[in-house]
Amino acid sequence: MAELLKGKPVADAILARCANQAEKLKEEHIIPVLAILRVGENEADISYEKGAGKRCAQAGVEVRNVILPADVSQEEFDETLQKLNEDDSVHGILMFRPLPRHLNSEKARNMIAPEKDVDGCTDGSLAGVFTNTRTGFAPCTAQAAVEILDYYGIEIKGKNVTVIGRSLVVGKPLALLLMNRNATVTVCHTRTKDVPAACQNADIVVAATGKMETVGAEYFHEGQTVIDVGISWNEEKGKLCGDVIFDEAEPIVRAITPVPGGVGSVTTSVLVSHVVEAAMRKAGF
Amino acid sequence: MAELLKGKPVADAILARCANQAEKLKEEHIIPVLAILRVGENEADISYEKGAGKRCAQAGVEVRNVILPADVSQEEFDETLQKLNEDDSVHGILMFRPLPRHLNSEKARNMIAPEKDVDGCTDGSLAGVFTNTRTGFAPCTAQAAVEILDYYGIEIKGKNVTVIGRSLVVGKPLALLLMNRNATVTVCHTRTKDVPAACQNADIVVAATGKMETVGAEYFHEGQTVIDVGISWNEEKGKLCGDVIFDEAEPIVRAITPVPGGVGSVTTSVLVSHVVEAAMRKAGF
Lengths: 285, 285
Hints:
The structure is a homodimer.
Chain A: E1 3-4, H1 8-27, E2 33-39, H2 43-58, E3 62-68, H3 74-86, E4 92-95, H4 105-111, H5 123-131, H6 140-151, E5 160-164, H7 171-180, E6 184-188, H8 195-200, E7 204-207, E8 225-228, E9 232-234, E10 239-241, H9 246-249, E11 255-256, H10 264-283
Parallel strand pairs in A: 1-11, 2-3, 2-4, 5-6, 5-7, 7-8, 8-11
Antiparallel strand pairs in A: 9-10
Helix pairs in contact in A: 1-10, 2-10, 6-7, 6-10
């Protein structure tokens, strides 16, 4: 029976830390503010918006919802984003992507001021992860994986970590975050010849393939920690599933994150912590 | 007897390609120009400057040497760099670092316009390597390693590559370049528990430890390719040596770069190719 690395206590601990910091900021008459910029009425965006709003409230972070119509012009969109950049009372900007097709998503991504890029999507933030400096912020899901390891006292330094997946939002930034924390990191992907062998070499396996229930028994051995970043709806089973075949991995390994209730439930709290951190940096803490 | 992966033919091939492209640019009345910004009279800088000048001449690239006194003020330095950024006739800027202590090296690094950052030192260039897009340029030494593999027809895609070293100029960017080329990459460093084991797993080993002659027989097996990025002066032997113990590795592996005459001799040509590429991009090729 593996230890279940649930996300909720991790998220709660992060939010408690944030609430503490927000209290300190309040003494300086500063309230951390997250602006959420949404174009159109995408259901998933609205649902994420609600979740983020709740988490922000828990931590004393104010949310400002900025909603533009789905057919907004590039000019008006640019103007709105630029205003948020320039607004001194806004500490973090979350912009839902992809934007509608008629807008330039790539340009918008890099328009966000790096110091407000709490979602870790700009080139500045990625360079910060690369150089291990405090430029911008790490992508939230990648950092959530690290927060879980830290919360449960799973050592990263000196450990072999295999990351399956090389996306810009999880695989690559997570590999660098773990490298910066002194792990020996191997990144596998669709062109890797023997992914199970690479995972067998690892103390910690991170599955971020985006392919539901594809990482099974042959990837694991006793004593490993498994972080499952995947989350997909399994039509057949009528429930959410991860990239790992949980029922195969769980009896073998030492510890594993559940899906749902694992990495995904920590991501929003990391976002909130970035807003508070942005406000702290700005105030010179 | 391993195949010797000499740098000279690789460098020559790159320069021949550059000369061809420079010819095409000439038809459009464009001459690629590299500005070399040096502060003070550091011997190593001057020697590199000479080498780069020779390579540039071979490829039809013009060099503009900008030399500032060692005690130049921050203001004058900033102004000089800004002028080079704004000068439409300059396509690439090479700035020697570290700068004298009284100047802000970190600020200067990111002051260079990304499209002129032929040395791959700005956050923009690092983000470009990260996102696998044409923002800025890859650090030259990292790219030189890839050029050698390509020139000698050593497949990267699907291969296991172990990089020893995680520096900002070699280890990390090279790991990303190889990942972008579909290699399965492991990055080792001083905190890695068993570097020889990680290398034994690899088809290609890149040594970029910065520690002379420390990578010996136990790291290698038959059939491997070894890229030695290190170059240090061995006082005892009175010659330049790499990070790999050449006499131990060479009888075992399939192919290996010599030191000197390996990676180091390709780096300047990569720099030149970036200047030509910068001019091509600007001209819309």
